[in-house]
From TrEMBL:
The lineage of its organism: Bacteria, Bacillati, Bacillota, Clostridia, Lachnospirales. Residues 237-296 form a coiled coil. This is HAD family hydrolase. Residues 850-898 form the UvrD-like helicase C-terminal domain. It comes from Roseburia intestinalis. Keywords: ATP-binding, Coiled coil, Helicase, Hydrolase, Nucleotide-binding. GO terms for biological process: carbohydrate metabolic process. Gene3D superfamilies: glycosyl hydrolase (family 31), HAD superfamily/HAD-like, P-loop containing nucleotide triphosphate hydrolases, Putative phosphatase, domain 2. Residues 416-717 form the UvrD-like helicase ATP-binding domain. PANTHER family: 2-DEOXYGLUCOSE-6-PHOSPHATE PHOSPHATASE 2, PSEUDOURIDINE-5'-PHOSPHATASE. GO terms for molecular function: ATP binding; carbohydrate binding; helicase activity; hydrolase activity. The keyword Hydrolase applies. InterPro entries: Gal_mutarotase_sf_dom (IPR011013), HAD-like_sf (IPR036412), HAD-SF_hydro_IA (IPR006439), HAD_2 (IPR041492), HAD_sf (IPR023214), P-loop_NTPase (IPR027417), PGP-like_dom2 (IPR023198), UvrD-like_ATP-bd (IPR014016).
Length: 1261
């Protein structure tokens, strides 16, 4: 579709411009029901936009009744729908005003073509203020045949005096699309109730999600000439400047507000303090926005993609920059480089290609052009089209600049192999082998930026840890991240991470840590896998001695409470649970068995004896408090190792990284009883510097998180214990089907001369390497200069540095062998040149001269490097020192000079035999990952998995927790009644088995045609709605001692998560009236999806606030309070009246595949459960009933209160309502997690309507 020729846009009204189509869908069935006809929801959809004479005939055929009185039914539908609209009002569809304003400003005609009569059409449009936008209003009454006939659109074109091909028709329904297409118009569909099928898509010029997206179809496609590009640049610069000015004005206003607050409020005034905190938070965010706008203004973009989306059927073009730029109507004029579609700029060639949007799927486009720009000082210097982004010629131009300038160009020059790593899903693990200068550290930083941009719901800055080998590297990373729009990332050395994992056991006044000596062969054995396995075995033996595994019998009765096999099975099945947590849980299980044994049995115990027994079984395995010290325990382990012939030093108060790793493991494995979720994703740079001991301990302590691991085995400077290959680590970390090993072969850092010099160093080694592909960029030869004495060595060093400074080099490094030499050299050089901070813990990478030991240069690069005095004594000819010198040489971007006195190390002085070839690791190129988020399964696979999970749940419930619920047997007096029912007792059970064995076939429609093998999910429960449970199973056993205190809170744009020792609670606003409450037991578990709506479809306003005592989440209709001290959830209506609260003492309990949520219903509160029929509401006040619909079509049970709320329980299995205070009150639901929806609505009919429309089953993927 060429929009240049478009002179008018003709709109359908209902469902397109105004949100009334849903009411037709609702009131056609109600009107027909009034006259004795039953219409399904699917049938109601076929009535959309259907005009005369088709509608009457359609209904007569649908119900096979030639005498159906269409006029009477339609009039009644108009009456009841009119009453509803009068009461509730009509909403304008999203983007309508924006589109109409745009069309009016562009001089494009607007018209209406609707199936609604003229009187109501004009009434609706005037009521909503839309009437004056339109040049023509065409109604179905003006033509002989309504939609789907083309008459109405042909008539509209004649009234506009335009050809159909000069008009766009905007429709939401199939009937409307067919009408406009038949008339010859260009049809744009904005789906309202259903998506277009394959046949309908063939009739569309475009399909859009909202009306304002149509504006994009009219946007002028940017030209290709230099004049066109210069014009476009000036336009975008103007927009960027306008955005920058607005940002500055916003900050000025906030500062004024803060000044006013200081004048008006006292420092201790609570209201003033709250306003101050809000204003400062806004100021902080606006200041970050200002930084983004300044970046956009400085250099608006660097690339462009032209493509065609098959669904849109029109060419599109987007510019790509460091940050996104939007115009005044919030339309993007420049895309952020992290946007999903921007990936094709980096990794795709011309033609058909794909890009992936997290949790939405993969989309295909036809890429027509990739263009790269050189923009400097608001001037377009050059541009070129290329199939490859930033070819070697452009890269050479960028890399020839100094270090500081290169950083600013990185985003523009990201290569395909780097981009694949950056955009890999953070929910998977990746290990990256990158040669020196391949951009490993840079890729890791861009990866974090990409994840935070695209996975906002799942990851926040505090969900990341960056682990580096030294503080200088970490300080460099921290300084660069804000350039990538990343703030608040926690970064630490490996030692600091393990100290963090010791929590309260680490006393910094008593303990300290030190670096392990790289050449210490004696203690280096602590860095390997064998050492970890010894520690693991030592801890397991300790646990075996601490937890008794004997049969436990009940006093007097002699009944077996817990067998040694059951104890052993529990211990075996929970390898990631600490010893103390296992003790507490075994106590829980045993106490539940004990309570079950003494409840309702003929054997009774006197109160005093019962109290003693209670105490005995409550702490039979121990009280869960470990009274030893992790340090003492570790000392015992080391002494045991010495006895086994593994001699290592036994530290007193100072520990190396492997001591700390062991201590953290002991804490987690033995002592911990209150697990804390530390992080979601760990980024490790220079990973080859750490031995497998650290990774195995980390993998255990941070169970459940994912990793991005970057390193180069050729740069392993920890000779005795670092990683010389990746094989062991790959087996430990890369266990998932989406986990991957990536390789960065290209080196972008060094000139050819420096690269050849460094490779010659490597050739002195006797180890395998990964192949290197250098970028062809020439520079000065590497200089090696001998000095006669120490004074001359120092003088030449000063002369070289000063010359480099005169040449404009901003970052210069003098690299020494160790910390002592670096400190000494820095002290001497200070007399002649300015030296950057020499304290290695405080030093930060930046402009100037840095004097560093070689080990502290890892991950860094400098414009110029001087290798200071590399003699044979300091660097003997062995593999370890080969790697050390390779690291030193590869730090240089442009210049490398070697100054020495005495005998130069043979690694640099001696020539390698010409015939020697380095062994190379086999390497596979990383390919684009299959999309992690959406795995496709067949209906058969889904059903099979459901059966497996169901069987597993039942087995677990039989093992621990309450016994399986069974129906109370029918007495003889009820046999006739039982026979009259369709599914009760044994009949219900057999029906349940049939349901599990084969999915229910969907019944044929009323035309008698079978729709094929479509399957429909049913409720996997043997209990019919309203069945009465046996009182014996109503009492919930084995609980009441769980810790629900909220430990931490995480807010995303879709939900709020609250974590306690017992598990994870999530509150998700679905609509202003509906709140989803989800819970899963265990701190390492995650909330999963249900068959129903997981989060809001459309954005609406809601807030989350935290105080000392509670967390408040509020929408327009509902306020939710969660008490921090107990995790109980309370619900309030829009008037802040309390509607419902969970039980404060114990809000929830989860065991054996069943979930109990305990509520505090008022004694006088009347409660009903929704049955299958429209008028079926069963009274459950102070009763116990099954409220799930066993064997029926899958739907949520719904409990309604006269107070104006409902509870919809998201379970595919049995749901039991217990309103009897002796046992609860509670709602029990089968499933791996607890999930219910709170609905706030006073009117019962409206509440049921919200339940039916909002909480429908979600499609499977």
């Amino acid at each position: 579709m060429n929009t240049k020729n478009i002179k008018a846009v003709i709109f359908d009204m209902d469902g397109t411009l105004i949100d009334t189509e849903k009411y037709y869908r609702m009131f056609w069935p109600k009107a027909l029901a009034h006259f004795g006809y039953e219409m399904t929801d699917e049938q109601a959809l076929t009535m959309r936009s259907l005009g005369q004479p088709y509608a009457p005939q359609h209904l007569k055929e649908m119900f096979r009744d030639p005498d159906l009185d269409y006029t009477a039914i339609r009039n009644y539908r108009k009456q009841i729908m009119g009453e509803c609209l009068k009461k509730n009002g009509i909403e304008i569809k999203k983007g309508a005003i924006e589109l109409l304003d745009y069309l009016k400003a562009q001089g494009i005609h607007r018209a209406i073509a609707t199936a609604t009569d003229q009187l109501r059409t004009e009434q609706y449009l005037k009521q909503l203020g839309l009437y004056d936008y339109f040049d023509q209003i065409i109604c179905a009454t003006m033509v002989e045949h309504g939609k789907p006939s083309p008459d109405i659109y042909q008539y509209a074109c004649r009234q506009l005096a335009l050809l159909p091909e000069e008009c766009i028709a905007v429709e939401d329904s199939p009937n409307g699309v067919c009408s406009a297409y038949g008339a010859g118009c260009n049809v744009v569909m904005v789906p309202d109730q259903t998506e277009p099928d394959e046949a309908l898509r063939g009739k569309l010029a475009a399909r859009v999600d909202s009306l304002d997206e149509i504006i994009k179809l009219f946007k002028k496609f940017p030209g290709l000439t230099k004049e066109d590009e210069e014009h476009q640049l000036s336009k975008i610069i103007e927009i960027a400047q306008d955005n920058l000015d607005h940002a500055k004005e916003d900050i000025r206003k906030i500062n004024e507000d803060l000044a006013d607050l200081l004048e008006v409020y006292d420092a201790k005034d609570k209201e003033g303090l709250a306003l101050w905190n809000n204003a400062t938070a806004r100021l902080k965010e606006d200041e970050r926005e200002l930084v983004r706008y300044e970046k956009a203004r400085k250099k608006p973009y660097f690339g462009r993609i032209d493509f065609r989306d098959p669904k849109a059927k029109a060419d599109e073009a987007y510019y790509i920059g460091r940050v996104g730029i939007t115009d005044s109507s919030s339309d993007p004029v420049v895309l952020d480089w992290r946007a999903p579609i921007a990936s094709v700029y980096y990794e795709s060639r011309m033609g058909t290609c794909q890009y992936t949007v997290s949790s939405e799927g993969t989309f295909e486009i036809d890429l027509k052009r990739k263009r790269t720009y050189e923009i400097e000082n608001d001037r377009l210097k050059d541009f070129f089209d290329s199939d490859v982004v930033a070819n070697d010629e452009l890269l050479t131009k960028y890399l020839a600049k100094n270090k500081k300038a290169v950083l600013g160009e990185i985003i523009a020059t990201i290569q395909k192999e780097q981009n694949l790593i950056i955009r890999r899903s953070p929910k998977t693990n990746i290990i990256v082998q990158g040669v020196a200068g391949s951009g490993k550290t840079t890729v890791a930083m861009h990866r974090i930026s990409y994840i935070l941009y695209n996975y906002k719901d799942d990851f926040r800055p505090e969900d990341f840890y960056i682990i580096g080998s030294n503080r200088i590297l970490l300080n460099y990373i921290t300084s660069v991240l804000p350039e990538l729009d990343v703030y608040g990332i926690r970064q630490m050395t490996m030692e600091q991470l393990f100290i963090r994992l010791l929590y309260e056991d680490w006393d910094e006044t008593r303990f300290s840590y030190h670096n392990i000596d790289k050449t210490d062969a004696k203690n280096s054995i602590k860095g390997g896998t064998a050492w970890f396995l010894d520690l693991e075995k030592f801890c397991q033996n300790y646990e075996n001695q601490s937890i008794a595994k004997e049969d436990i019998y009940m006093e007097k009765t002699g009944n077996l409470l817990l067998s040694k096999e059951q104890i052993g099975r529990y211990l075996k099945n929970n390898p990631k649970v600490s010893m103390q947590s296992k003790i507490l849980m075994l106590n829980e299980i045993l106490y539940a068995k004990y309570e079950n044994e003494v409840s309702g049995k003929s054997v009774t115990f006197p109160p005093k004896e019962k109290k003693i027994l209670d105490k005995k079984y409550a702490s039979y395995f121990g009280d869960g408090k470990w009274r030893e010290s992790v340090f003492t325990f570790y000392r015992e382990f080391l002494l045991a190792q010495q006895e086994a012939g593994k001699e290592v030093d036994v530290p007193e108060n100072s520990f190396d990284v492997y001591d700390l790793a062991a201590l953290a493991y002991i804490y987690k494995r033995i002592k911990e009883t209150d697990p804390v979720r530390e992080t979601s994703h760990v980024v490790i740079d220079e990973a080859q510097d750490f031995g497998m001991m650290s990774y195995r301990c980390l993998h255990y302590c941070l169970y459940g998180c994912t990793y991005t691991i970057m390193g180069d085995t050729s740069q392993n400077i920890h000779f005795e214990y670092g990683l010389n290959d990746w094989e062991e680590l790959k087996k430990l970390i890369l266990t998932g089907i989406f986990d991957a090993f990536g390789l960065l072969r290209k080196s972008y850092r060094n000139t050819v001369e420096i690269s050849e010099y460094a490779n010659e160093i490597l050739r002195h080694g006797d180890f395998s390497i990964y192949p290197v592909e250098p970028i062809i960029r020439h520079g000065n030869p590497v200089q090696t200069v001998a000095c006669p004495d120490e004074n001359k060595l120092l003088a030449d060093t000063v002369t070289t540095i000063k010359k480099w400074q005169q040449d404009g080099y901003e970052t210069i490094a003098v690299i020494c062998r160790d910390e002592a030499e670096a400190a000494q050299v820095a002290e001497e050089l200070k007399k002649y040149v300015k030296i950057v901070e020499t304290d290695l813990e405080k030093a930060e990478f930046g402009d100037g001269v840095m004097v560093l030991p070689v080990s502290y240069t890892k991950g860094l690069e400098f414009d110029a490097v001087l290798l200071f005095d590399p003699t044979q004594e300091k660097y003997p000819s062995d593999n370890g020192h080969v790697k050390l010198l390779y690291v030193a040489a590869t730090r240089a971007l442009h210049e490398l000079v070697v100054l020495y006195r005495g005998k130069l190390t043979g690694i640099l002085a001696d020539k390698v035999p010409e015939g020697k070839h380095m062994k190379e690791f086999a390497a596979e190129t990383l390919t684009k990952a299959a999309e992690f988020e959406r795995v496709q399964h067949t209906e058969k696979e889904i059903e099979q998995q459901r059966r497996i999970e169901g069987a597993k749940d039942m087995a677990e419930r039989e093992y621990i927790g309450p016994k399986r619920i069974v129906i109370k047997p029918q007495g003889k007096e009820n046999e006739a009644e039982a026979r009259g029912k369709t599914l009760t007792g044994q009949k219900m059970t057999s029906a349940y088995k049939r349901a599990v064995a084969a999915p229910v076939r969907k019944a044929a429609d009323n035309s008698g045609k079978n729709e094929g093998n479509h399957t429909e999910e049913i409720i996997l429960s043997p209990y019919e709605f309203g069945a009465i449970p046996d009182n014996a199973i109503l009492r919930v056993k084995g609980h009441s001692r769980n810790n629900f205190v909220i430990k931490w809170i995480k807010k995303t744009k879709s939900y709020v998560e609250l974590s306690s020792m017992y598990g994870l609670l999530r509150i998700t606003p679905i609509t202003p009236e509906v709140i989803r409450v989800s819970f899963v037991k265990g701190v390492t578990e995650k909330i999963g999806d249900t068959a129903w709506k997981g989060k809001a479809d459309t954005a609406f306003t809601w807030s989350a606030k935290e105080s000392k005592m509670l967390v408040e989440i509020a929408t327009e209709k509902v306020t939710v309070h969660i008490a921090k001290n107990n995790g109980a959830v309370c619900f309030y209506n829009e008037k802040k009246q309390l509607l419902l609260t969970e039980k404060a003492e114990e809000p929830r309990f989860q065991e054996g595949g069943c979930n109990w949520t305990f509520f505090e219903w008022e004694k006088s509160e009347h409660l009903k459960a929704k049955g299958l029929l429209a008028a079926d509401f069963m009274d459950v006040t102070a009763k116990a009933k099954y409220v799930s619909y066993g064997g029926k079509k899958l739907r949520m049970p719904l409990i309604l209160s006269e107070k104006g709320y409902g509870l919809a329980i998201a379970s595919k299995g049995t749901v039991l309502f217990c309103g009897i205070r002796t046992f609860g009150p509670y709602i029990m639901a089968e499933g791996s997690q607890s999930d219910y929806y709170f609905i706030s609505e006073k009117n019962r009919e409206k509440l049921v309507e919200i339940y039916q429309k909002t909480l429908t089953l979600q499609p499977k993927f």
